[in-house]
Amino acid sequence: MQQIAATARPAGEGERQQLSAAVAAYLRERIVSGKLRAGEYLRANAIAGELGVSATPVREGLLLLASEALVQRVPRHGFMVGSFTREDLRDIFWTQATIGAELAARAVKYMSDSELVQLQGINVRHEQALAERDEVMLARLGHEFHRSINLAARSPRLASVMGSLTKQLPNRFYASIEGHGAGAVAYHPLITQAIRVGDAQAVHALMFRHIASGAEHLITAFERQGLWA
């Protein structure tokens, strides 16, 4: 393991929260990718030593993962890696698709002309990135596309819930979805056009299918890696 941060001085509250989030993100990636298997015990002190942080942010990170059902707290034994199945992955994407579709439908009512122009510009750059096979830029622009729509919905609490849900999978998995080719990118101009003409029902349906389809892409990728062999 690589060290996340040095512990030469006591961490303030904000810094400790950042460390906790970093520890959780690191362990989340290892659990979801199958590097840590269901039933393995996770010892806070051992993880702290390997990552170069104190035990406190590690415990907080593990509690965060417990709230996501990725680990289980076992009395007198610490934490144990929970199961992560195909249905778990489908549930995550179904929930994201449901909320994302609602946010997109609301954006039809509230998106300004300037925001729509910005969204169209993202699509142009997205197509260029696809032609250049720039997966890093595809992922970045995919995130920007969805974030722009979520903000345009003028529903900050619902958007915050969506943000919390997206954190349940490592960023590189979303990058894989947005970068895997024309299949993902093709939805963006369709959604943008439906927003432009004010068809909230079409926007809702398109966004739901767009997000939900990501689950099957990841399931296929994980099966190739032997996660659910």
From TrEMBL:
Tell me where the transmembrane regions lie: none
The record's InterPro entries line, in alphabetical order, gives: GntR_C, TF_FadR/GntR_C, Tscrpt_reg_HTH_GntR, WH-like_DNA-bd_sf, WH_DNA-bd_sf
One GO MF term attached to the UniProt entry: DNA binding
- Keyword check for Metal-binding, yes or no: no
Keywords tagged on the record:
DNA-binding, Transcription, Transcription regulation
Q: Which PROSITE patterns match?
A: HTH_GNTR (PS50949)
Q: Name one Pfam family in it.
A: GntR
Protein name per its UniProtKB record? Transcriptional regulator, GntR family
Organism name: Acidovorax delafieldii 2AN
